[in-house]
Amino acid sequence: MPAWLQLMIDSFWPLLSAGLIFSVPLTLITFVLGIVLGLSVALARLYGPAPLVMLVRFYVWLIRGTPLLVQLFLIFYGLPSAGIVLDAFTAAVIGFTLNIGAYSSEIIRATLAAIPKGQWEAAHSIGMSWPQAMRRVILPQAARIAVPPLSNTFISLVKDTSLAAVTVPELFQAAQRLASVTYEPLILYVETALIYLLFSSVLSTLQDRLERRLTHKETREVAL
Q: Would residue 222 be called left, alpha or beta, if left means φ above 0 and alpha means ψ between -120 and 50 degrees?
């Protein structure tokens, strides 16, 4: 067996386990928190008072205008100088959540704005309050529109977790450690790329199934 193939076999489980233990949980946690934050920001921009609108617009502008890696460095290495010390995983969660929240808020805001005003009027005409109309009528329709772009954001987040190597021992950092010991960076980084590709491919398949299910459900509701 070629030496490079043996190295890939020997390093496969350490790399995969780092992805399953750190990269995947980091992705799931930050995506859920980021969507909650993004929804809150989107609602604030659309329906909040002027001071709150200005505040969340500044937040979105700041996050979208600075690199994610710089944000992670500021949280993990910069905050301790101000007396705020966070462990590596918590710092990564906060950094990714703030980043995903800003980008997802723009997606959610656009989908909410795309819902026809007639849907609001129809909900109010049958006695729904604003929260009821938002929860039962507007958000379900907006969710169907938002699924494709949010799914793409989720898949991108899987790959972006490699930036957390500066703080968290995730997949890419595991590859760096192995490369420093074996002196075979090309082989190990290629294998790391393949594992990321595997994760992304699985998520893309799930995304396609979800989109088809939502499309089928929408078509059936229209037919009824």
A: alpha
Q: DSSP code of 80?
A: G
Q: Which two tokens stand for residue 184?
A: 């075979």
In angstroms, what CA-CA distances link 75 with 57, 59, 86, 159? 21, 15, 8, 20
Report pLDDT digits (tens) over 69-78.
899 989 988 9
User: What are the distances in angstroms from CA 170 to CA 16, 25, 162, 176?
Assistant: 10, 10, 7, 10
The 10s digit of each residue's pLDDT in 77-101 is 899 888 898 888 899 999 999 999 9
- Which tens digit of pLDDT belongs to each residue from 158-185? 888 888 776 666 778 888 888 888 888 8
Residue 190: which of 201, 203, 181, 178 has the closest Cα?
Answer: 178
User: Degrees (nearest 5) of the Cα angle 147, 30, 37?
Assistant: 70
Distance CA 143, CA 8 (A): 41
Residue 191's Cβ-side half-sphere holds a number of Cα atoms within 13 Å equal to: 25
